[in-house]
Design brief:
436 residues; mainly beta; elongated
Length: 436
């Protein structure tokens, strides 16, 4: 009897539309090539009645990038823990091979079928939408994964901007290299602020510039949000275009402006910022601002309010330090904060700054924040590298702490040489890796 191929049955078994999931279906799957991911694809599959043994392979540009042995005897979906590229850009092919069972060698022949593997966006956007998210649900337990400049910009979509969703960055992003231009549209604006949680997970956003009338920064205007573990650096500038005193008011490297209930933690900014009110990390933070465990290296040049960390805040600054050139109105400039608004509603605790204004903040308007262990040092290599010059709460000698003494490379905006990379030994957040 002529051996029959399993291919015809396999053709009817494999569907081309796959759905991202995070829980396995009923089948035995053994990964043979590639690492099992925390997410994957669910494949509708009806097995052949003549075999229960299969190999599922995924190919990218004809190269096999994932392979799993599968055993299934009943109609079921097959979950493959294939950590596909979260950008959604690669095109994959699914290859399913049916294997001959022992005792049927003379009756059946091994055969395989290739079919395009189509992974739809997980965020509800139509397939092909620029920057759509392909992994995650936007929840705290399953955040949308951000892996490209296009996906970072896609947060500006009405489907995501003010929805209180969660995002996790999984790669460093070079805006200029990916977009072909450094010019960046800030995430969120006065009319439509960003609201949600953004976790950089120790990654960077590099080589971007901003030129906009109001709320200038990587994030423009945010509200009821948390941004954490995110670093930015660029040789370019964040500029609030001076159309008039009001519209150019709020400019910050990481965030231009926020309204209330916002926390920045474990963030780093190396950028030059200019406008009416400018801070290297944050422009203007209003009610319930918290800035904790952050560092700012750069330049803040403002017509009214300027600060190394922030131009104007109502809230708390804790365990932060800066190496910044700060210039602005003599009434509202500070090495850390231009104006800590509304008296004792603001606090500055365990902070340091090097060079810049002689005072941590401006008190010319009667602002009187609660200040504890805040000090300025001249900018020298010895001062920066001496752990004794930093508060004990930095935990520089604590293996389990957030900070350590290490190599920091940055663009020299402070001295007006943005194309020059400078190296210092200074406190750095352990989660970030610096490029020379």
């Amino acid at each position: 009897m002529k051996a029959r191929s399993l291919a015809r049955l396999l053709v009817s078994c494999c569907l081309t539309v796959l759905f991202p999931v995070s829980a396995a279906a009923a089948a035995t799957v053994q990964v043979e090539l590639g690492e099992a991911g925390s997410y994957g694809v669910q494949i509708p599959f009806t097995p052949s009645p003549r075999t229960e043994r299969y190999t599922f392979s995924i190919l990218e540009d004809s190269a096999e990038v994932f392979r799993a042995g599968v055993t299934t005897s009943g109609e079921s979906g097959i979950y493959l823990p294939f950590a596909y590229d979260p950008s959604g850009l690669p095109e994959y092919t699914l290859r399913v091979t049916g294997h001959v069972l022992p005792g049927r060698e003379g009756l059946d022949r091994e055969a395989g079928v290739d079919t395009p593997l189509a992974i739809p966006p997980s965020c509800g956007c139509p397939a092909g939408t620029a920057g759509a998210f392909y992994v995650g649900k936007g929840t705290a337990a399953s955040p949308y994964l951000v892996s490209s400049a296009a996906q970072l910009q896609h947060i500006n979509s009405p489907n995501h901007l003010g929805k209180g969703q969660s995002f996790l960055q999984v790669r460093d992003i070079d805006v200029e290299a990916e977009q072909g231009t450094s010019l960046w549209t800030p995430i969120g604006n006065y009319s439509a602020p960003f609201s949600g949680q953004y976790d950089g997970d120790g990654h960077w956003v590099r080589n971007f510039s901003v030129d906009t009338p109001r709320s200038a920064g990587l994030f423009g205007y945010i509200n009821h949000s948390t941004i954490q573990r995110l670093a930015i650096e660029t040789p370019y500038s964040v500029v609030g275009t001076t159309l008039d005193d009001e519209t150019a008011r709020f400019c910050g490297g990481l965030v231009g402006e926020w309204r209330m209930s916002v926390t920045l933690s474990q963030c780093y900014a190396n950028v030059s910022v200019s406008g009416s009110c400018a801070g290297v990390l944050l422009g203007v933070g209003q009610q319930s601002t918290v800035i904790r465990d952050c560092a700012a290296y750069g330049k803040a040049d403002a017509a009214i309010q300027a600060g190394g960390v922030a131009a104007n805040i109502i809230g708390a600054v804790e365990r932060c330090y800066g190496i910044c050139a700060v210039s602005g109105s003599s009434l509202e400039t500070g090495g850390l904060v231009g104006r800590p608004n509304i008296n004792a509603s603001s606090t500055l605790t365990d902070c340091r700054w090097f060079d810049g204004p002689q005072t941590a903040y401006s008190s010319n308007y009667g602002d009187n924040p609660v200040v504890a262990n805040v000090q300025r040092y001249p900018l020298t290599a010895a001062n920066l590298s001496n752990p004794a010059n930093f508060p004990a709460s930095f935990g520089l000698n604590d293996p389990s702490g957030l900070w350590e003494m290490g190599d920091v490379w940055y663009y020299n905006h402070k001295d007006g040489k943005p194309g020059e990379r400078v190296h210092v030994t200074a406190p750095k957040l352990k989660i970030f890796t610096f490029q020379e």
